[in-house]
């Protein structure tokens, strides 16, 4: 009689999943004693809104089987593994198809970390790679302004669709803040949000995901750097001794956490006077090189003070888009090449 009951149950569908409950492996156990059929059903969740309806459908179907006088349904829930089997993950979900992570960090704010993250991402994209940019600077997410993005990303199949601009897939903490709210992000919230940005954003296939970290060695930067799988860090600094002191601390922190550092980028290194081509070292000279010697980390490049970089940030059109062949863009391209080389050598 068990076979007849099973056949009868094959006619019962899960109203939501639109497949029969036997095929869905919801039927766990069937036993018959003195005309009483006992059926154990595993639901996807105890809170299943269709629970009552499924139970009624099962009772109705089984009661029709010859020899069954009463039906008793017992409920249980599926295990994590069974649910994963039933709902295979979206093939392009989260960061599954992201090949490499580059985290851009700095010892303190205002050294040009975001400017470097954006133009480095664009330089990688110009090399023909698929590139994403994740603005994880919880203190001051400035990528929406620097790329002139004000829409809120939409959701699709329970995933967040990143915005797209200049060929990059972009996600920012800033997309979810209404206006200029002051923000106090605490460790657990930062951890939760960054996990969402990694797991629940449809990044799709990416060769590189560039992550703009919060500045400094505070809680958020540690949490985020630790959350990004096998990230390689690009440290941005200006040449002054004060900035170097901060960056040393930051490098120490990453090393302690066994996070790989790809190299150092010196920003606002010099000002190139248009007439004489003379390099004026406004913030002192050689800071990046000194740091590189001291730490054994390569100096990936020195970016000049370039008014077009600042304007690009203000206008929402980055230098690598506005003037891709300019001298400063050339520096970004060279940095991108070095980063690619370092990452390939490391793998
Ligand atoms: P951070 O992310 O470290 O806080 P930003 O990238 O926001 O720094 O840069 C701070 C400001 O300095 C921005 O207005 C930016 O446009 C400007 N800036 C950054 N690098 C340069 C540069 N090399 N030349 C001119 N302006 C720059």
Protein architecture, described:
By secondary structure, the protein is α/β, with parallel strands linked by helices. It folds into two domains: 2-86, GMP Synthetase, Chain A, domain 3 (2-Layer Sandwich), CATH 3.30.300.130; 98-346, P-loop containing nucleotide triphosphate hydrolases (Rossmann fold, 3-Layer(aba) Sandwich), CATH 3.40.50. The chain contains twelve helices and 15 strands. Strands 8-9-5-10-4-11-12-15 form an eight-stranded mixed sheet, with helices on both faces. Residues 106, 109-115, 142, 215, 267-268, 303, 305-306, 309-310, 313 line the site of adenosine-5'-diphosphate.
Blueprint (SSEs and pairs):
Blueprint: H1 2-9, E1 27-33, E2 36-43, H2 51-63, E3 70-77, H3 80-86, E4 98-106, H4 113-126, E5 131-135, H5 143-146, E6 155-156, E7 159-160, E8 163-165, E9 168-172, H6 187-199, E10 206-212, H7 219-227, E11 231-237, H8 241-256, E12 260-266, E13 271-272, E14 279-280, H9 287-295, E15 299-302, H10 307-315, H11 319-322, H12 327-346
Parallel strand pairs: 2-3, 4-10, 4-11, 5-9, 5-10, 11-12, 12-15
Antiparallel strand pairs: 1-2, 6-7, 8-9, 13-14
The chain binds adenosine-5'-diphosphate.
Adenosine-5'-diphosphate (ADP) binds at residues 106, 109-115, 142, 215, 267-268, 303, 305-306, 309-310, 313.
């Amino acid at each position: 009689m068990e076979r007849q009951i099973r056949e009868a149950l094959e006619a019962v569908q899960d109203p939501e999943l639109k497949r029969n409950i036997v095929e869905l492996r919801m039927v766990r156990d069937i036993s018959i004693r003195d005309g009483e059929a006992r059926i154990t059903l595993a639901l996807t969740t105890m809170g299943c809104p269709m629970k009552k309806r499924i139970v009624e459908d099962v009772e109705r179907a089984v009661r029709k089987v010859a020899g069954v006088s009463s039906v008793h349904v017992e409920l249980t829930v599926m295990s994590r593994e069974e649910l994963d089997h039933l709902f295979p993950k979206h093939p392009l979900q989260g960061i599954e198809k992201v090949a490499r992570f580059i985290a851009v960090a700095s010892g303190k704010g205002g050294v040009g970390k975001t400017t470097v993250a954006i133009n480095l991402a664009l330089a990688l994209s110009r090399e023909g790679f698929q590139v994403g940019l994740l603005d994880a600077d919880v203190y001051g997410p400035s990528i929406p302004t620097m790329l002139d993005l004000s829409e809120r990303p939409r959701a699709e199949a329970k995933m967040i669709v990143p915005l797209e601009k200049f060929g990059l897939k972009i996600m920012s903490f800033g997309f979810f803040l209404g206006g200029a709210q002051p923000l106090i992000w605490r460790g657990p919230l930062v951890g939760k949000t960054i996990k969402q940005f990694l797991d629940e954003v449809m990044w799709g296939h990416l060769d590189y995901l560039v992550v703009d970290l919060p500045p400094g060695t505070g809680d958020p930067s540690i949490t985020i750097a630790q959350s990004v799988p096998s990230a390689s860090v690009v440290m941005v600094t200006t040449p002054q001794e004060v900035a170097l002191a901060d960056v040393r601390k930051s490098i120490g922190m990453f090393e302690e956490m066994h996070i790989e550092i790809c190299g150092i980028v010196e920003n606002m290194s010099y000002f190139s006077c248009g007439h004489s081509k003379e390099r004026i070292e406004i913030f002192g000279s050689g800071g990046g090189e000194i740091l590189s010697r001291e730490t054994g980390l390569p100096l990936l490049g020195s970016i000049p003070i370039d008014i077009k970089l600042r304007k690009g940030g203000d206008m929402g059109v980055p230098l690598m888009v506005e003037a891709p062949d300019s001298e400063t863009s050339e520096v970004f391209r060279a940095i991108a090449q070095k980063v690619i080389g370092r990452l390939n050598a490391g793998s």
